[in-house]
Each structure stands twice: as C-alpha cells, then as structure tokens.
Amino acid sequence: MSFSVAAAVPAAPYIDWAGLSPLLALLGGAIVALIVGLAGPRAIRTQVVPLVSLVTFAAAIGCVIALWGQSIVLIEGALQLDPLTLILMLVICGAGIISTLLAWRDQAADEIAHGEFFSLMLLGSAGMFVLVASRDLVTTFVGLELLSLPLYILCASRVRAERSLEAGLKYLIVGSVGSATVLYGFALLYGATGQTGYSEIAAAIASNGLATDPLFLTAVAMCTVGFAFKASLAPFHQWTPDVYEGAPTPVTAFMSVATKAAAFGVIIRLFDVALRPAAETWEPIWVAIALITMVVGNVGALRQPSMKRMLAYSSVAQAGYVLVGFVLVTDLGVQAICSYLILYSLGNLAAFAVVIARERETDEGDNISALRGLGSERPVLALVMTMAMLSLAGIPATAGFMAKLRLIEAAAAGDYAWLAAVLVILSVVSLAYYLPVVATIWRGETEPAADGAGGVPVLAGGAPDAEPGRAGWELTLIGAVLAIAVLVFGIIPQPVFNLVASAARGLGL
Amino acid sequence: MSLSLAAWLVLACPLTGMLTIALLGKKLSPRAAGTIGTAAIALAFVFAVITLIQLQALPSEARAATTSLWDLVNVDGVKIQLGLYVDPLSTFMILVVTGVSTLIHLYSVGYMQTDAGYVRYFSYLNFFVFSMLLLVLAGNLVLLIIGWAFVGAASYMLVSYWYRRDTATAAGIKAFVMNVVGDIGLVLGTLLLFKTMGVLDYGQLFSGAHAAFEKDAPELVIAMLLILVGAFAKSAQIPFQTWLPDAMEGPTPVSSLIHAATMVTAGVYLIGRLHVLFEWAPTAAAVGAIIGALTLLVAGSIGLVMTDLKRVIAYSTMSQIGYMIMGVSAAAYVGGFFHMMTHAFFKALLFMAAGSVISAMGGNQSLNNMSGFRKALPFTFVCFLAGGFALSAFPLFSGFFSKDTLLFEVGARGGWYWGLYVAGYVGAAFTVFYTWRMIYRAFWGEPCKEAQVVIESGHAYHPAEHTNPHTGNEDDPSTQEVEDSEVGFPGKEHKYAETTWQMRYAMIPLAILAVVAGVIQLPFGITDVLSSFLEPTFANTIVAYEPDQPGLEAFGLILSSVIAIVSLACAYWIWVRRPGTSAAIQARLPWLHRLFINKWYFDEFYSIFVVRPVIWIGRWAHDSFERVVINGALIGGTSGLVKAGSAAVRAVQTGLIRSYAAIVIGGLSVVLLYFLVRAL
User: Fold this and answer.
1) Does ipTM top 0.90?
2) Are residues A302 and B642, on separate chains, in Cβ contact within 8 Å?
C-alpha cells in the first residue's frame, strides 16, 4: 500500500511524430508563409506565398495518404488518427488547395498582405485537424479556437471594405458566444463525469447512470447548441448569411466546405463516442434541429439576389441534410456523411469559382445579375455553374444526386425513412432557387456583344498576369475540373463510396 | 481485353461520340461530325466483335456474364446494379446493332451532306445507337427501362428532326406518345414482377420465376401482358402501330436505323430476353404470338395499296416484325432472331436504296410519279433487287432461310400454332406482292421526267421550289406546302448512290449480306452457326429448342418457294404486262381498297375512342379541377406556405448581433428545458 513517488511525476508523453505529420506540415507551412510574406519584392509575396500554401496543403494530403488506413491514438489519448480523421482531412486540404487558387489573385490577400492571409488559412486548417482528431475535451476546445480565430481575421481581411470588417466583427462576437457555450458545456461535462477523455466520458455515463442527471443534461444541451452554432445549423445559423456575404469570397468558399467538414467531424466524434450512452436523450433534439435546418435553409435561400447569400442558405440546408446522416448513429450514416461532404463540396466550390470570376469581371459583385448572359459570353463558366447548381439541387447524373441518394439509403436503412422523405420534399423547394440561376445564365442576353463573337474563348487569358477585369485562367480551370468531377462521380460514384467505406471504423459503431 | 471491359466499351463509344459532337457543336465542321459519329459506332462494332470472341472463349455453360460498375440502390434487400448482362443473345444483338448502324452512319455522311443541321443529326444518331445498346446490354429491368425510354426520346428527336415541318413535329409527338404508353406498360409489368419476386436482375428473375409463381398464374400473366404492351408499342404491333408510318417523316437514314437495326427490334429482343417468364405464362405468350400474326397480315395488306415509297417499306417492316414477334412468342427463338438479323440487312438496304431514288426524284416519294429508274440508277436498282429478293423470301436469298426457319419452328409446335403457320404463309404472299409492286413501279416502264434528268445530265432532278411531300396531294407537288431548302429534305443538293461514294460503300456490304447471310443457318442442320451460338441463352427453354421434323421442314421450303415464284410471276403480270390490272381490281373491290388505304381505320378509331374523349376530359379537368384544386389550393397553398416561411426567416434575420445572440440563448434554453423535462 505504498505509492511510488515517481508515479506522481508524469512522464513525458510519447509522441508519434509520423502520426502528427499532417498537423506539423500545416503549422510549418504557416510559419514559412509568414516569413516569405515579409520578403521585399512584391512578386515573391504575391506569387511565392500562395505557392507555399499550395505545397503545404499538398504535403498535408501526402501525409494523409501515407497514414491511410491507420488507427492510432496520439499524444496519450489527446488525438485520435483514424479513417474519419483522414477522410475529413482530405476534404479540408482539398478545399484548402482550391481556396488558395481562388484567393491567389484576390483583392483580400492583397489588402491584408499575402503572408498573413495564407498563413492564417493554414493555421485554420491545422485547427481543423486538431478538431476532427481530438478525443479529449481540452484538445477539442484548443482545436475549436485554433480554427475560429484565424477565420475571424480572414473574414475581415478586406480591411478597406466595410462589409468585410462587419462580417469579421459579427463573426467574432457571435462566434465567441458559441465558443463560450461550448466551453461552459465542456466544464459541466467534466463536472458531471469527472473525465475529459471521450471514451472515459462514455464509460462514466454508462457506469454511473448519468443519462438523467441534470448537470449532465445541461452539459449536453450546451454542447449541442454550441456545435450547432459552429456548424451553422438552424436556428443557430443566423451569422452564416451575413458572414458569408460579407467575407471575401475565397474565404467564404473555404468556410463553406472546410469548416463544415471539421464541425461535423467533431460533432460525430463527440456525440457518437463520448455521449453515445445518452443517445436516446439527444437524438430527438438533433432530429428537430435537422428538420428546422432543412426548412430554414431551403426557405431562406429563395429569391436572394446575392449569390453568396443564396449559397450561404444553401449550405445551411445542406448541413441539414448531413444531419440526417448523423442522427442515425449508424456506420452507414457516417459513411453517407463523409461521401456527402466530399461530393457536395465539388459543386459548391465550382459555384464559388464562377461567382469569384464574375465579381472580377463585372461591377455587379456577387449579384445574380452578374450571371446574366453568361451562357453566350463565357460558355465554359456557364456550363460549370449549371453543373454546380444541378449538383447542389441533386439532379441525377451529378455528384449531388449520388450524395443525397446515399444519405437517403442510409436513412431508410436506419429507420428514419420519414426524415429522408422530408429531405426529398425540401429538395424540391431547393429547385426554386437553384434553377433560376441556371435560367439566368442561359436565357438572359447581355447587350449585343460588341467584340464580334462575344465572349472570351475557352481558358481565356492564358497569361498568369491577367490585367484587372479578367477573371484569370485558374478560375476557369478549377471550375472545369470540378464540373467534370461532378459529372464523373454522378455516374461512377463507387470510388468515393469505397474511399469512405471505413469511415466509422474508429468510432465503434 | 476482358469480356466485361469490352462490353462497357461498346456502350462507351457511342456515348462519347454523342457527347463530343454535341458539346463541340458548331465548332465542328460537318465532315468532322460525320467522321466522329461513324467512327464511334465502328469502334463500338470492333468492341462488340471482341466481346463475341471473349464470350466464345468461355465454356458454353458459363456464357452469361454480369458485370457491374456499382450499386444504384442497395437498401432493404433491394439491390439494383448499374450492370450489364453479356450472354449470346445480347452479344448477337450488339453485333447486329453496331454493324448495321455503322453502315447507316456512313450512308448518312453522304446522304445528309448539305443538310443544315448535319452536326445535330449525328449527335442524335449516336445517342440513338447508345440508347439501343443500353437497352440490349442492360443487366436488369431498371436499366432496360432507362434504355427503353432513351430509345423513345431519341426516336422523337430524329423523327422530328426537320422541326420546321409541322407534319414532322406531329409525327414525332405521335411516336413519343405511343412509346410512352408502352413505357407505362413495361414499368407496371416490372413493378408487378418486383412485387412478388423482390428482384429485378435477369439472373435472379429467371432462376426464381418457377418458385415464385404457379405456371400461368394470373399475376404473372398480367405482368407479362403489361410488358408485352411495352414490346408492342416499341415494335409497332397492333394496336400500337400507328406511329410507325408517320415516323417516315424523319430523314431516310433514320427510317433505316429505326426499322432495321434499332428500336422496332427492341420488342422482339425483350420477349426473347424474358423467354423464361413468357414460357411460364403461356397465355401471355399466346397473346404475343396471335398479335404478331394479326400484325403481319394487316400490315401486309396495307402495304399492298400505299403509294408512298417509304410507307410501303414501313408497312413491310411492321409485317416482318409481326413475324418475329409471333416467332419469339411461340418459342421459335432461332427463327425469330435469325429473321431479325437478315431483316436488319435487307431492310436497311431497301431504305438506303429508297433514299437514293427519292433523292433522284427531288424529294417526291409517290410511286405514282416514279417509273423507269432501272437505267437511271443502275446501282440503286441492283441493290433494291437484292433487298427485294431477300424480303420476298425468294429461294436461296437470306430472307428465304430465315423466314422458313421461323415458320417451321412455329409449325412444329403443332396444335393451334398451325393457324399461325398458315397466317405466316399467307403473309408471305402479301410480302411478295407489295415488294414487287414497288420494284416494278419504280424501276420498270418508261423513265419518268426525273429519271430522264438523271440519265441526261447525271444530276438529280431539282424542283423549282421544295415542298413537303406529306402535305396536300402526295402525287402533285404543286398542292404541297412550299418549304425552305435549308431545313427540310434533302438540303440544297440531292445525293444519290451513283454519285456519292459513302452511300455506295454502305450499300454494297448490305447487298451482299442480304443475298448470302442465310448460309449461317441452313435447314436440315446443314449449318447451325446461329442456333449453336444462341443455345446457352435458351438452354433453359421448356419447349423443343430445335424441333426435329425434316418432313415439315421440307414441306415449308417447297411451299415457300412456290409462293415466292408464283406470286412474283403474278406481280409481274399485274404491274408490267397488264398495267391496268391493279386499277381494275381496285375498281372491283372499292371497299377493300378503302379499308387498306385508310390503314384499317386505326387512326380514326383512336381519334374517336381515345383522342377525343381524352381531350374532352382534359378540358373539363383543366377548367374545373385544375383551376380550383391544383392551381388554387395545392400550388397556391404550397407556394404561399413557402413564401410565408421565407418572409419569417427574413424577418428574424435582422442583422443585429444582439438578436442573434438572443436566439442562441433562447435556443439553448429550449433545448435545456426539453432535456430537463424529459429527465424528470
């Protein structure tokens, strides 16, 4: 009965550096980007820094691929590297690459300075890694803040634009309320269970019969609301349209895919692992949130003149669909969520690429009128936008259809067929805001084309130093690649389904 | 190359061709569009041959491969794959479809050269072939229905191809509506099968049918009858045949494609494909056989009196498809598909030759105006003769062997099938008459003025203004609607085979095949290439696959020869030796002529009993039901609800941070309250 003295002094935790490599790559890249951003020549700042960002994201993807299939616990249980983490990191880094290209010649990066802009993006991505990998309350909160703080700044990065500053400030204040809610919830959760590790919390709930304990329930309620806020689920979504509209469009694109993936990653892990013993308690609330989110997102998107606002509401609606996969608490459900996040992001990013192109080409900003006559003026961009809208609406032979089909299948298999039916009905409503975009593109004629054939040929402006007023070839390229991916995965989605087949392996579902 | 890869590539080629042509659109020169379109189908044919070689390399009992890209649906025990079913029957079909289609594409390159919509034409044509191949290769009924509907859509686009002609758009609509009626039947039949058996792919359907249903169980019979509706509509069988003659509004190569290689043979394929189910529901099979026999007689009789060259051939198609439907429904599988193949050759050839004649006529299609093209178009004449001999089943030509194999297999079943056997031989006499009537009237006699132009100048006759032959009096272009030569037959220049090499090279192989293709399956088992090739597909048939009654077989061959030669001689007498005879017969039996020329009044019947009541109900529903219930309550209500929701969401979206925060707190309170109340 004698306690060893040595036991009181914690040994240095064992760190599996290889397992941490994606995080290290992102953090290292952020530092390099920041340093390169201090270089004198403008050419280095504007061209090399984005290149560093690209290379970093590519390196992170490389690390993810190298770790593929592994399931390891890192740093004494702080982080868990499993298929879910790796799949979501793939989505996040993919979105990072595309957003880097979108931001490459953007006003925002110029105004705040390239070094800051791209290193914040990389830091945010590092936060996302921590968030989706965390299996401990403390790490989760660190990840959450590491994700949120860079994004607050990125939203305000067009320092000379009032709307961008407003978006950043709004996001900061309301986001702090959300973070505070989560933190409060975590504190209470620790108070109720005496544990911070996810699996330990689950064990404590089960063994102590906490499912009806008021302290515990308060904690669950706060976690629910806090994360619903971060994932912009209704009725806690209200910051989303304002922030999405005001933020620089590349940042909006990045948030709409990467932040969403990270938020769902942590929701899945926290609720499906730590709080699973209380699943019967929290399930109805999440079902209600899913319903409200689908309705509010789809209804709110109607007749929005701003494309970014419309896409913001659309992303709220899509988040509601994803929740349908979440409330099932099944292996199939998690798989469906992962394939949904991958497939949906293709169309979403393609849409943002076209919006950015039009912001640069016209003086109508992100208003839908900027798209009028796109079909005759820029047929490639018009096709891209059409594919994007059809995919978001879930028309067959697009990736969005397959993503929805997978969710519906999972819901039907998980005894939530009625929720799937609601999803389908609300998808019909969504046609009322996606299809008008397509109609505007192809029907609206611009003023008679002055320059003969009207419009710039495919992959126009091949020179990287396009003069202002030109969209830039990289936008067309990204859009075309994504649109083709939308079509290909709309017909042959099996590779994606295979990729996510093991998504739930680390969750014990 | 593996079997499944080859099969997928067969499907991929026309799809790629279609997409390439459609997406590049006007950037493509007409010549490039034609080349891409033809090359795509030719490549598909190459892959079809590879499929054949790979299939034959397998042991005969293993010659039915399923290959799936992924699961379309896999939930609750229902599994539907995006998969193909490759067996001798589907391989046989893709060979015929791609082979004949390649030649039709080649022909089109020449024939449609100066048409304004050339590029659009080839993307449609590729799409048509793709749809047909999808239908044939589909591994389950769902995919089959998709291909089936695509074929209907493609036929609509091609029949209405000259969309500035009102008659063409009307014909396209008619074809589409009739096809959709068939689609409905097919879908309902499929659902009925699915309801009982719970599976949709061929392998499980065939193996499970005997366990799931009693023999001739009412539910199975109804399902199969509904599926037959689909087959009848696609294959233009009574009572869904009225779209076929109108479909002659499309360009002539399209008629050739629809009639020879694709579309109308789909019904025959469907019955053959589902033969296990049809044999287990003999009542439905009997209906199929009887309808086939009726169609072959009715269509043959109409073909005797039509004066529009293309329509005569159209009715001959209907009649020949009647033979095939009768054959496969009566379990004469080898004969049915043998005849389908030879028919594909000679019918494609006849349409091509007819197109050549019509070009030389400057767009006029009436037999009343044609004569003496023998000297003007010698090449076309020889091809027409080859096709004509084969169609009229003249001894030793391909159609002779295929038709006799078919009728022999039907007759060998005995019993009431004797009735069908007799009907088949009566129809054979009709066939000879309408075929040779066409040939004698178009090619014999003194050259008409158009033929004179060709003989003298070596160019096709050009009327002063182009007219739509389907309006006004078909014999007199001055009564017809004048139309723009830019859109509408046949473009600015008229191409006929003698002056256009693509047309000639497309016709030569078909002419050869129309003469000699019979050798692959000669009577008395002299050769049995086809029957031994198809055997693995029909191994599970429950009636005699190859009947062994040499006496009957010999009798059939003799009877057929006698009918062909005697009828041909009579035709010669009626239309060449005594040209007034047919007019005299017509005057003697005016009522019969009226019945035939009005196509047995099917259109009028539909007009009175279907179209008008439907229009009347539609008007009523529009005025009362739709205005009040649909527009008012349902649509108004739903959109009002959505609008109200939209307004509510906007009202809450104030843009004020404090109100957002308040809602977060409020929401949190609600969630918390719910948890606590539940916990108490």
Assistant:
1) no
2) yes
